[in-house]
Each structure stands twice: as structure tokens, then as C-alpha cells.
Specification:
Elements lengths: L5 H87 L8 H38 L4 H35 L5 H5 L8 H9 L7 H36 L9 H19 L2 H22 L2 H26 L5
Helix pairs in contact: 2-3, 2-9, 3-8, 3-9, 5-6, 6-7, 6-8
Length: 332
């Protein structure tokens, strides 16, 4: 019969406790690992959720921007359609005739070309007459012969004023710009021509000796010419200021296209009316030049008038020669 000792019972209990302890320790480790894994998984889930939320917000804002852009395009399209309809009605009513723009430009261009050709022929004839006058003065021709030549030159000046009056009706800006003149002449251009007062200053020294009565008459003529020139210059400045104010008084806005087009048409009509006065300024300036030449002719004797016409021609001839030299200068 086997003998069961107390030591054996104690050993068995110790083994059992040890196994239980290891088992509990394992369970605790497994639980800790599981908890750690769950926490890591939770953190990853939170980051994913945040990213998804950010993506959804970005997508929402993108949709809103796209919607606003589409609405803006649609609004612009509607405004453009309304404006086109208003312009079409205006064309039908004869307020805005864009289809004749090219024709008007062509007529204006043809007018300028025609005037330039006529001026070239006038200048050629003028040079011929001046050469004839110079020969007569050099040959000490009689007063009757000189008078005939001088009156022919004066009549030829009347012709250029008539030509300019017709040209102003076709293209007043061409005359004002002086493109029919040489560059040096354009430097001294005033309302499409020379300043009468400045020309008289140049002539005084060329016409000596003059009587006291002639000196006084020329001085009065110069003063009256200067006053008339100042008045015309002030009128031009006032016109430019008024025109600038008219053109800057309003602009096409973003709403109310019908009202905008009406305002625009009214604005252009006012500006066109004011530009129409430019032709009057050219006419008055040329009339002043014509009267100055005629008054000068009446003040001077026939021989003095011949010398004055030669001096005027020589002055402008030198300006044209200066332009040619300037254009032909060597350029580095």
C-alpha cells in the first residue's frame, strides 16, 4: 500500500499555483496587447474620419464655387443678350449705324488723299508763281507787271483756303493733325496753318524801310491778329474740356443695359455735336489768315508786297528743307 506524504501534496499545490499564475499573466499580457491594438485602431479610425470630413468639406466648397461660377456665366450671358438686343433695336431706329463705319472711314480717307494730292499740285503751282515773281523783282519789272503777278499769288492763296474748307468737311482731323505738312512745319502749326501774328513779326524786318504809318498799321494788324488767335485758342481749349467732360460723364455699368445703351447713345450724340464745331474753328482760323494777307497787301506798296510774299515763301521753303535734312540725317 502506497504511502502519500504531505510533501507530495505541497508540491502538487505549488505546481498548480504556478500554472495559475502563468495563465493569469498570459491573459493579462494578451489583454494589454488587445487594448493597445484597439487604441491604435481607434487612432487610425479617427485620422481616417478627419480626412474624410476634410475631403467632404473641400468637395462641398468646390461644388459651391462651381455653382457660383455657372451662375455668373449665365448672368453675363443674359446681360450680353440684352445688350445685343438693345443695340439691334438702336440700329433699326438709326441711332447707331455701325455698318456704315467702314464706309465713313473710307470716305474720310479718300478726302484726305484727295486733299494731299490737291495740295501737292497747289504747292507746285505756287513755286512756279514765286519763281516768276522773284525773276520780276530781280529784273526790276514795272509796277503794273509786278501788280499782276502779286495779285495772281494772292488769288492762289485764296485757292488753298477754299481747298482746306472742302477738306475740313471730309476730314477735319487730317487738317488739324497737319499730316499734309512736313515735320518741321507741323511744329509751328496752329489750327491747320500758320499764325498770322507770328508771320507779321517775321515780315517787319524784311520790309524795311517802312513809313511810320505803315509801321503803325502793321502793329495794329499784328495786335488784332494776336487777339483773334487767343480767342480761337481759348475756344479750342474750352471745346476740348467740354468734350472730355462729356465722354467721362458716364460709362456702361453691369446692370440696366437698356438705360446704359440709351445713355451711351446720348453721350455720343452730344460728343459728335461738339466735334462738329471743329470745322468752324478751322474756317475761322483760315479766314483770319486770309484777312491778314489781304490787309498786309493793302498796307504795303506793290514792291513791298512782292518782297513780303517772297519772304513768306522762303520761310516755309526753309522749313521744308529742314524737314528733309532732319529725315535724311545719319542715325547711329
Amino acid at each position: 500500500m502506497a504511502d502519500v506524504s504531505p510533501r507530495t501534496d505541497i508540491s502538487t499545490d505549488a505546481d498548480t499555483d504556478d500554472r495559475n499564475h502563468r495563465l493569469e499573466s498570459y491573459r493579462s499580457t494578451v489583454k494589454e496587447a488587445s487594448d493597445s491594438s484597439d487604441r491604435s485602431k481607434d487612432n487610425k479610425d479617427q485620422k481616417t474620419l478627419r480626412r474624410l470630413a476634410q475631403n467632404r468639406e473641400a468637395a462641398r466648397k468646390s461644388r459651391l464655387r462651381k455653382k457660383a461660377y455657372v451662375q455668373q456665366l449665365e448672368s453675363s450671358r443674359l446681360k450680353l443678350t440684352q445688350l445685343e438686343q438693345e443695340l439691334q433695336r438702336a440700329r433699326q431706329q438709326g441711332i447707331f449705324i455701325s455698318s456704315t463705319g467702314d464706309q465713313a472711314h473710307s470716305m474720310s480717307g479718300n478726302g484726305a488723299i484727295t486733299f494731299d494730292a490737291e495740295y501737292a499740285r497747289w504747292l507746285e503751282e505756287h513755286n512756279r508763281q514765286i519763281n516768276e515773281l522773284r525773276s520780276a523783282v530781280t529784273a526790276h519789272a514795272g509796277d503794273a507787271e509786278l501788280r499782276t503777278i502779286v495779285e495772281g499769288v494772292m488769288a492762289h492763296y485764296d485757292e488753298i483756303f477754299r481747298m482746306k474748307a472742302n477738306a475740313a468737311k471730309a476730314d477735319v482731323f487730317h487738317l488739324l493733325s497737319g499730316m499734309w505738312k512736313t515735320p518741321a512745319e507741323r511744329c509751328f502749326l496752329w489750327l491747320g496753318g500758320f499764325r498770322s501774328s507770328e508771320l507779321l513779326k517775321l515780315l517787319v524786318n524784311q520790309l524795311e524801310p517802312l513809313t511810320e504809318q505803315q509801321i503803325g498799321a502793321i502793329g495794329n494788324l499784328q495786335q488784332s491778329s494776336q487777339q483773334a488767335e487767343d480767342a480761337l485758342s481759348q475756344g479750342m481749349e474750352a471745346l476740348q474740356q467740354s468734350l472730355a467732360e462729356t465722354l467721362s460723364s458716364g460709362s456702361l455699368g453691369t446692370s440696366g443695359s437698356s438705360g446704359n445703351v440709351a445713355n451711351y447713345m446720348g453721350q455720343m450724340a452730344m460728343a459728335m455735336g461738339k466735334l462738329g464745331t471743329l470745322e468752324g474753328f478751322i474756317h475761322q482760323a483760315d479766314n483770319l489768315r486770309k484777312q491778314t494777307l489781304q490787309q498786309m497787301h493793302r498796307i504795303l506798296t506793290t514792291r513791298q508786297s512782292a518782297r513780303a510774299l517772297l519772304a513768306i515763301h522762303d520761310y516755309f521753303s526753309r522749313l521744308r528743307a529742314l524737314s528733309s535734312l532732319w529725315l535724311a540725317r545719319p542715325r547711329e
